[in-house]
Protein: CocE/NonD family hydrolase
Amino acid sequence: MQARSVVRRTAALVTIAVAGSAGASAARAAEPPAPLRVVAGKASPAGRHSVQPLTFTVRGGPNGLTCPVEAELYRPAGATAAAPVPAIITTNGFGGNVAGQRKFARSFADRGYAVLNYSGLGWGRSGCKIALDDPDRDGLAARQLVSYLGGARTPGQATPIDWVRRDAKGHDGVAYAHDPRVGTFGGSYGGGFQFAAAKDDPRIDTLVPLITWNDLRYSLSPDNGDLGDGVTPRSAGSLKTLWSVGFFALGLVNGAQGIPVDLLGRTLVCPGFVEAICAGAVLTVAQGSVTSGLAETLQRSSVSSYIDRIRVPVLLGQGQADNLFNLNESLATYRALRRQGTPVKLIWHSWGHNHGRARPGEWDEAYRSPTYEGTAFLEWFDHYLKDDPKAPSLDFTYFRDWVPYGGDASPAYARSEAYPAAPATEDVQLSGDGRLTADPARVTAGAPTLMTTLLGLPTGTTSVDLVQEESSNSNIPGTFVSFTGDPLPADRDVVGVPTVDLRIDPGLGALTGPLVGDPGQSTVYVRLDDVAPGGGSTLPGNQVSAVKVPVDGRSVRVSLPGIVHRFRAGHRLRLVVAGGDVNYRGSVLPTPLSIRIDPRSPSTLRLPVVPAAAQGPIVRAAVPAGAPAPATRPRAPRATAVRLTRRRVSARLAGAARVRTTVERRVGRRWKTVRTATVTVRRAGRATVRLRRALPAGRYRVRLRVTRSGTRARTVTTKALRLG
Structure:
C-alpha cells in the first residue's frame, strides 16, 4: 500500500509538470495566494457538524501588510475526501464579528455545506483597519481563505483540507491548484466583501449579497438628480449626517477596542479606519458633502466601479425599510448585471437597516420553520454549488405588507419576470396651484417658493435615521412647497422608483455654485407622502431624495428612492419639496428657491403602478421545462468477500475505485471507530489494507465506502465479526 501511495504522488507530480509544459504556466503564475499561517484550535462536535476555531495570518494590503483573522470552520458530519462537500464563506456586517453569522453557519453546515465564518478586517478579533471592503485589502484577505478551503498547504496546518469539493477550472476557464466549490453569503458590509473577493477571484462560484451598496458615494452623500438607471451621483451630493457620523464614530470606538488585538495595525494614527478614510471623513462632515479624496476611496470600494468583473450568478436581496442602502442601489447592480448577461435574481424584502428584523415567515437564519427567503437561499446554493437540477427562477420578487398570511410569508410576495414589475407608469402633473392632476388641461402656471436655512439646519421632521421607528412628517411653513392629488378612487400599488421632473430657480446658488463648486449649490429634499382621509400622513419606506439644484435652472429628473407601497382608496398623494431634512446636511446659505410650473412643458410625476392582476405568485426552483431528465449515474464497483484479521482488512473489488475503510469495535451498546484507512485500487481484484497495530480480541464490523469519479458511492457494512 505504501508503494502504491508513492506511485500516486509521483504520477501527480509528473502530471502537473506536463501540464505546465503544455502552457498552464500562466495559470500557475496567477495562482491566488494562500494564508501565511493558521493556528487551529480543537474541533468540537455540535450535532450534525463540528466547529473548529481558526486564527489566520493573511496578507492585508500594500507594503507587506499582514493581518490576523479570527474564523470558525464548520464541517458537516460525513464530509470526507471520499465524500467532499461544497463550501460557503460568510462574514459580518458593519460593527459585527464572527458571532453574528453563527446561526446561518450552523444551519447550512447541518444541510451539507462547509462554512467558513470569519470576522472581517478591523472587526472582532481580526486585525488591520476598516477599509470599507476594498478589493485590494478585504477582497485579498477573502481570496486567501478561498485558497485554504481549496486545499492550499498553510504553515501551522496539520494537513490541507481535502474534504471540500474541488472544481477543475475557474470561471475564467483556467485550472487552479486550489479551487473549491464555494459561494459567499452576508448582509450589508458582509455583502460588500463578496463583490470585493469575486472581482479578482474566478474560483468563487456564486454570491448572495443582502442589503448592500452599489456606490458608497450615493449611499452616504446622494444626489438623486439625473441618475439614469444607476445611482452614481453627478455631484458631491448632500451628506447623510446621522448615518455618516454614526458609522464613523462606531469605527473609531471599534478601533480603540482593538488595542489588545492589533495595536499597530488597527489602532494607531487613526483608530479603526485606514488613514485615507479618516482624513476625508473629517473634511466631509465639515463641508457637508464628500470630498474628492474620500470620493475616490468610496468609489474603489464600490461594485459600480468594477461590475464588469462580476460574472458568476448573483442573488441580490434589498430592504424596503432601508434609507442607508435603498432599493435603488440594488436596481443599479441588478440592471448592470443583466446588461452584461450575468445570471441575477432580485428580492425586495421588508427588512433593512431601518428595520433590522424580518417579518414572520420571511427569513430565519436558524431555519426553525419554512420561510420565503430561507427556501430561496437554500435552493440557490443547492443549484449552483451542489448541482441540483432544480434551477431558481431569475426573476424579481417583492414583499407586500398589505397581504395577510400565516406562517411562511411566500403568499405576501409577488413576482415579475424581471424589473420593472409595472407594465407602464401612471403619470400626474404638478400644477402651480399646489395640485397633482392627471388632466394636463387643469395644470396652471406658477412658481411656488420655499426657503432654505442657514448652515443646512433642518426645516422640519421626518423619520430619524438610525432609529427604527416611524414618525410624523412636518415642515416649517415657508420652507417647503407641496403638490397634493385628489382622493384616489381605488387602491394604487406602487412598486419601484417614482420619478419627477423639476425646474427650480437656483437662488443664490446661481452665484455661489460657479464660485465654490458643489458646496455652493443649493439642495432640496423631495418626498412622496401618503395622506389619509383625516389628514395624517406617512412616508412610505421613510425615504427622502436629496437633489442638488442646477445652477443654470434647467429641468432635472429626480429619482425618488424605490418603494413598495399601497396607496389606499380615499387616500391622496402629496409630493413635498423641502429646503432641509433632519437626516441631511443641507444648503450652507439661506436662499429662496422657486419651483417653476409651465403648462406648455409640465412637470410630471411618474408612478410605477402594478395592477393586482400583474402581481403573480412566486415560483420555486424547478427543473426547466423541456430539460432532459438528469441521467442516473452508475454505482461504484461492488465490494464483496470482506475479511478481517487482526492486522489486515481485505475485500474483492469489481473494478478500479477509491476505498475508505473504517473498522469499528463494539464497546457496550455502541460501535466505536478504532481504525480508518483509504486506498486507491487500480484494477479489479482483491484489495488489502494493512493495519498499523494489531486489533485486540473483540467484536468488530467493517464499513467500506467505495467511490469512483462519475459514479454514485457505494457503502458496504459487514455483520459483526469476532476476533478471538
Remarks:
- The longest strand covers residues 670-681.
